[in-house]
Design brief:
Number of strands: 0
Shape: elongated
Structural class: mainly alpha
Radius of gyration: 18 Å
Mean pLDDT: 86
Strand content: under 5%
Number of helices: 7
Helix content: over 70%
Order of helices and strands: HHHHHHH
Low-confidence stretches: 15-23
Amino acid sequence: MSRRWLACALSVVLLAGSVAGCGSSGDVAAEKWASSVCSAVGAWQVTVADLTRKANEGVAAAKSPQEARTSLLALLGGAETASEKARAGVVKAGIPDVGDGKKHADSLAKAIGVARDAYGKARKAVEGLATDQDKTFYDGVAAAMETLKSEYKPESADPTKLSSPDLRKAFDSAETCKAKQ
């Protein structure tokens, strides 16, 4: 497997991942909640995109599996940390005052937690790969990325895809969300 293909696969899997809240309503105005969520998720998207770019450059320039692993671990560990920060930001935003607000807030936080866990699992898999044989290492990386791709569905962590018309309206009108569109 070539490094160029691997870099391309990383872009698809991880950048897609960055595109990205049981029945009661809360006490945070929907637009304020949407603004807070967009800030948290927007920072996450920027961080993961930057980490992906750096990893692609690092893997492409790597002269050994050890160098490629260093770039991949920076990406996966950084994405794991950024995902947790985004999840915590969604939790900190509170519960929006819309129907099923708690369900929507919990759903989004859970989806971002799934992303965090998938990045962490991929990081651990790459950490455990032997680097003494190129083919074995890159095959292992491909398997870790495939698992990441199957476990983390970016659309589930996209706050604008929540099923609440009131929240969709809030995302459309919140200034921090407009800047991200």
